[in-house]
């Protein structure tokens, strides 16, 4: 029996539905790349079906990285079932990596605009419309806040979500949290939308960067003289890793590619990217000093970090209405920081060796 991959109303919140006349509207290419995303991809495809932007002006390019689950089947089912779009194209990414997948999308796109959406994401009904409206206003690259969500409302997953949403746990990139400014210019955005003229000038993604390809690409965009517009109304939602093990693996990989990227394109990174790595070095340095009898620095480091971690854990505990599992944040925060930091140091060493 064929499975129906169209899943209900789970699009991360419903935006205002706007009826748009097709005349003089831009053709949009929406790209999604995926590897083993059978669980999350159907909900994203459901969100795409509900978009307020005219389907006749939407080109959907789905790229599968030779998945080992039913991701490719989900994509082909969508391609066969829904003909209202200008085009639905399913392509295989032979190289499997993220930047290679986006380059596949670029090679096949025929739209005036490219919008990147992660397979782990959900988008409200006005997501494409809000991107197009911002680009029609004169901008060439835009994006907005990315809100983390969870797939089940359990105490443990709410705690993992709290860790990911906290500035102490995830970082200070503007797209990760709400901003007081409705529109501003930033260094990078998640789920970016690009006018084709930008892609034509800047070129393809760097396939040697497996986690930081967007940082480097957006750096090249800025170097080419373009600005990246952050618009508070362009909201999208991202599925938080649903286990601590997966979150640790994600943070380690993120840190690793920050370290590697430091040797390839250091200017596309910010100092805050290296804070976890500096923290791990501090632990190692003060730990070595304590072994030879100089223990004050190690104690000072642990004391200061412990106070910060304890205060932020307490604030999260109170903010989340005394959810008991949030007390575990005092252990989760250092685990995530050390994972990211160790990954960064390994990436720095390997990146140097590759030089």
TrEMBL record:
InterPro entries: Glyco_trans_2-like (IPR001173), Nucleotide-diphossugar_trans (IPR029044). Residues 31-202 form the Glycosyltransferase 2-like domain. This is Glycosyltransferase family 2 protein. PANTHER family: POLY-BETA-1,6-N-ACETYL-D-GLUCOSAMINE SYNTHASE (PTHR43630). Keywords: Glycosyltransferase, Membrane, Transferase, Transmembrane, Transmembrane helix. Pfam families: Glycos_transf_2. It comes from Laedolimicola ammoniilytica. Gene3D superfamilies: Spore Coat Polysaccharide Biosynthesis Protein SpsA, Chain A. Belongs to the glycosyltransferase 2 family. The chain crosses the membrane at residues 271-294, 300-318.
